[in-house]
């Protein structure tokens, strides 16, 4: 079976639920008392997709202002970004849009962008309309999905949709070899990020 590697970076404001999304994807569980990320955290998970194994290499970045300058170090070496906003906080959409602009300017060419409107379990108190978010993401040709890390809505789908769109690196060991091929190495940050 072919093994493919997909480097994915999560970006977005503090508190939108990036770590919770990753945690659900990794562990099938939700922690209401999860701590804010410091710097960034790295995780891997391998899933079977059709007749391939997809190994996700996931960088979960910190959304707090004081860590934003670090973000380019992670997205510049990624094949895909998931930019998360909170459907209850309009201002997190502004951050998202700034983030998209920055990635277009400073990210790798052909990076795949997905937008996740998180906390859709709180649909009754939403302030960001799904239609508006969808129109925006269509305009930038990004994948769009509303998610809930709390109720496990669309989390696996988000990662699977990514893996369908990313031109994956074949990480199968060359015949006789044992190692994995990595796509790109992190480089120095160019400027502060989303
Ligand atoms: N109701 C609800 N709460 C959520 C959801 N996802 C995350 N939360 C809560 O939102 C808060 C922030 O979640 P985090 O996952 O730490 O957010 P983050 O984007 O990683 O934050 P930083 O690490 O600071 O960048 C926590 O209290 C979570 O329990 C969700 O889908 N629904």
UniProtKB/TrEMBL annotation:
It is a lipid-anchor. Residues 170-194 are annotated as: Disordered. It is found in: Cytoplasmic vesicle, Phagosome membrane; Early endosome. The keyword Membrane applies. InterPro entries: P-loop_NTPase (IPR027417), Rab (IPR050227), Small_GTP-bd (IPR005225), Small_GTPase (IPR001806). One of its GO terms (molecular function) is GTPase activity. Belongs to the small GTPase superfamily. Rab family. This is Ras-related protein Rab-22A. It comes from Moschus moschiferus (Siberian musk deer).
């Amino acid at each position: 079976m072919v093994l493919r590697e997909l480097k994915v970076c999560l970006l977005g404001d503090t508190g939108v639920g990036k770590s919770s999304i990753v945690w659900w994807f990794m562990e099938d569980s939700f922690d209401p008392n999860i701590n804010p990320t410091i710097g960034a955290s790295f995780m891997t998970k391998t899933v079977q997709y059709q007749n391939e194994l997809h190994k996700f290499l996931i960088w979960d970045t910190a959304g707090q202002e004081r860590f934003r300058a670090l973000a380019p170090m992670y997205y510049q070496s990624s094949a895909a970004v998931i930019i998360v906003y909170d459907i209850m906080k309009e201002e997190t959409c502004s951050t998202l849009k700034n983030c998209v602009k920055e990635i277009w300017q400073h990210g790798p060419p052909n990076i795949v962008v997905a937008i996740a409107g998180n906390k859709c379990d709180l649909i009754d108190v939403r302030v960001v309309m799904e239609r508006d978010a969808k129109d925006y993401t269509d305009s930038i040709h990004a994948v769009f999905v509303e998610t809930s890390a709390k109720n496990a809505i669309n989390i696996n789908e988000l990662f699977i949709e990514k893996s369908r769109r990313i031109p994956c690196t074949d990480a199968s060991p060359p015949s006789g070899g044992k190692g994995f091929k990595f796509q790109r190495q992190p480089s120095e940050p160019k400027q502060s990020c989303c």
